[in-house]
Amino acid sequence: MEKDATTDEKAKLADLQKKLAVYQQNIKKNKIPVIIILEGWGASGKGSVISGIIKELDPRGFKVYTTGEANEEEKKFPLLRRFWTKIPLYGNISIFDRSWYRDVSISAVEDGLSEKEVNHRLRDISVMEKMLTDDGYLIIKIFLNITKKEQKKRFTELEQNKSTEWRVTANDWRHHRMFDAYKSAFQNMIKNTDTGSAPWLVIDANNSHSTIYKTVSELCKILKNKLDELQRGAEAETSEENKAKELVARTGDDIKKNPILPLCEIDLSPAAENNLYKERLKKLQRRLFELHNEIYLRRRPLIIVFEGWDAAGKGGAIKRLVGGLDPRGYEVIPISAPNNEERGRHYLWRFWSSLPKNGHIAIFDRSWYGRVMVERIEGFCSEQQWKRAFEEINYFERELHDRGTIQVKFWIHISPDEQLKRFNERLAKPEKNWKITEEDWRNREKWPQYETAVNDMLKYTNTAYAPWIIIPGNDKKYARLSVLENVISQLENEL
Amino acid sequence: MEKDATTDEKAKLADLQKKLAVYQQNIKKNKIPVIIILEGWGASGKGSVISGIIKELDPRGFKVYTTGEANEEEKKFPLLRRFWTKIPLYGNISIFDRSWYRDVSISAVEDGLSEKEVNHRLRDISVMEKMLTDDGYLIIKIFLNITKKEQKKRFTELEQNKSTEWRVTANDWRHHRMFDAYKSAFQNMIKNTDTGSAPWLVIDANNSHSTIYKTVSELCKILKNKLDELQRGAEAETSEENKAKELVARTGDDIKKNPILPLCEIDLSPAAENNLYKERLKKLQRRLFELHNEIYLRRRPLIIVFEGWDAAGKGGAIKRLVGGLDPRGYEVIPISAPNNEERGRHYLWRFWSSLPKNGHIAIFDRSWYGRVMVERIEGFCSEQQWKRAFEEINYFERELHDRGTIQVKFWIHISPDEQLKRFNERLAKPEKNWKITEEDWRNREKWPQYETAVNDMLKYTNTAYAPWIIIPGNDKKYARLSVLENVISQLENEL
């Protein structure tokens, strides 16, 4: 519990808290998503500060998350997944008591991470924050700073109170003795992540009740600025353009030097030898079954992305791909139009939430590439947004790669004539009826726009760590075998 | 991999699988939620059977879940939570490779559970299945049965194949040696949970490829029956009425003997002594702070439910309740109209998903009691549904109680005049504007209907394990102190 403040100070704080509640309503109205991070020393008062922040807030609009060491389950995924899954809806607030910064400060000291690993994590964090701020997220990063002497005093006080003594552990005292090592880890973290779009706010927290006042007061200022900025809409536009450029400049090198062929140059004539198909299919499925076991044993996650024209045969190819696999080790994730929960957040949120665990396979039937295809063509996102997406996706896939994920991306290609033939076939079969909708016919009319978008996608996201494979799909059997062959050869390379 | 079937058998299976896909589409159209459980011996072929089931299904309509021992995180919640959170949307299918039955069969033997504990779990399972089937869920429970000899043969074969040898662990062989103990656990489980609405299907799985055929064939029959039944709508109605009666008969005894006062007899005159309020509030908050630590140390979850008239002061009472608490140890969960994900499942789903962890506090600002208030009055559920809900809620709360959860339920009561006064005040203050909507005015007109519903609720869900507390709320300060006092005294009783 904090020390008593004077009546005057209390009244001033109460006013600020009410102001914050009004800002919260305006934030909601304007659909601004806000992330507030509380970092700082042990016993620096993060809990009391959070209490102070939420005091007058509408509980329907915020959520508090406490970050400890990653648990058993969280460790089966890339590091940042547990944070990506907790980003707020547009208009809401997520408050983090410790955050992704725990993994580059406390963990750096605790687990004795190499400088290289720490820098790697810092880079991933910068990328994540950039993606979020580019998308309109307001990230407010607060560090509560106290002296070693003050920390000692607080630990001692907590220990002397019967109901709080359990809060001070041997670990806390150990950390206290290592104050200097932590100090340099914290300094390094702040220095490397104090960016223009997500700056740090270091608050002197040696006096506990003025800390709350100072923090709430800073929050009010930041929110007010953001709301004022919104009114000067034009200005925000220009700065967004700059942001997009900045990101492109940083990932151009990842794209493979040998350019991928544009769709018009793909040879669609290859066909399977009918009489050998079954045998060959079975053989490939057996081999993949073996490799599936290998993946599991080595705890490598595998992502297979299927993109392609409507009726290109994605479903059929997936069916053969998994035909010999144990269904407990893979998941087919069909991606359709986002629901409200998904639409209300950064577009990558739902993909972070459905990543495969170590040793498991996630097969995406359509994917994050919707951003640069359907969302681009239908105008569900702005030009700047889909242009930025190429680089964002490259970053996303690079991060997965760096954390051990094997990625195989397919574009299943067919000709417009072949598509028409298949649409008509589908209409005729009751068990395939669900596969054809009005929308498919509408999309078909936009073939040229899609072709341009697909060529861009293939060109700008064809990286060494996640290259595209174009599968000629006019002959279904050929496509199915080819998918299996490509997955197998990529796994054999990686394992 | 399964043994080779003849071409004829393969063709027959392929036909059945296509049929299943058509049923799936009809199930979707009719919004029938389906749960398929696969239980059985180690190496009885659960994986292959699941592969066989999903072969032709639309992947957008089903999900496969594998159930192992509860993990670290899952153990912090009541046993059935991890299954409740995975029930399908209406029209979708959840397939469980092992399920809640793992906890009364394998776990019973592994962890040497007492007969009492096993029976307790069996009862909870029956209740869960009853709630789900009453709500229209189709639960299909399949047990794959093989002989001890066949199991030995399969383990040996798996071990001889280089890519599958790792699948057979020392544990599997240990289980094999304990075949008889498991047999009796499985028999006991089946005997006790083979109910009319969710019967078991024991399938002879000694011949692996006919097992898939038999299972898919049975599934087709069951789904066809269900779909046919739907067409005979009238009949279903009567059987639903019977189900409701059955459930009432089983929980009437839980309701407290001393009936709770109806709202019209509540004395609304109590008021706090203004000059002592602050001091008293502070003292109570300090005491609750101590007890919060106690709860955490003893790993007891605490649920506090706030119900009451619009503008009764729930928000203000909650604010004072948590005023002295560490925000990392509690969560305020505001319950408003369900979103699509929530509306598309059993109404208790969203509450199972938001239960507090052991040692944590969940404060519900409105709750599952919406079922017997707003949903009843606005006709969002049928009469049978809300009548059944009293008992379902009693069961739900009993289960939480049995698993250590402390529950405090408040009805904050005010007079219609007081409400009107507060509505007008809210309109005047910008920071409280969000608290008042058109809907509040509409609800106000239905005061008499709500009063009847509330009296029923207080009467039928006032159990020994989760009693109601009515708080006179015309004086806000009195209500706030009273809430704190009641929480404290209940905690002091329980700890």
Number of helices of chain A: 20
Strand order of the largest sheet of chain A: 2-3-1-4-5
Q: Tell me how many strands of chain A there are.
A: 10
Q: Approximately how much beta-strand content do the residues of chain A carry?
A: 5-15%
N-to-C CA distance of chain A? 55 Å
Shape of chain A: elongated
Give the oligomeric state: homodimer
- Identify the biggest protein-protein contact and residues per side: A-B, 56 and 57 residues
Overall average pLDDT of chain A:
92
Largest sheet of chain A: 5 strands, parallel
For the CA atoms, what is the radius of gyration of chain A?
Answer: 26 Å
Order of helices and strands of chain A: HEHEHEHHEHHHEHHHEHEHHEHHEHHHEH
Question: Runs of chain A with pLDDT <50, length 5+?
Answer: none
Q: What tags apply to this protein structure?
A:
5-stranded parallel β-sheet, 495 residues, 20 helices, homodimer
How would the blueprint of this fold be written?
2 copies of one chain form a homodimer.
Chain A: H1 7-29, E1 34-40, H2 46-54, E2 62-66, H3 81-84, E3 93-97, H4 106-110, H5 115-134, E4 138-145, H6 148-160, H7 170-177, H8 179-193, E5 200-204, H9 208-231, H10 233-251, H11 274-298, E6 302-308, H12 314-322, E7 330-334, H13 340-343, H14 349-352, E8 361-365, H15 374-377, H16 383-402, E9 406-413, H17 416-428, H18 438-445, H19 447-460, E10 468-472, H20 476-494
Parallel strand pairs in A: 1-3, 1-4, 2-3, 4-5, 6-8, 6-9, 7-8, 9-10
Helix pairs in contact in A: 1-9, 2-9, 10-16, 11-20, 12-20
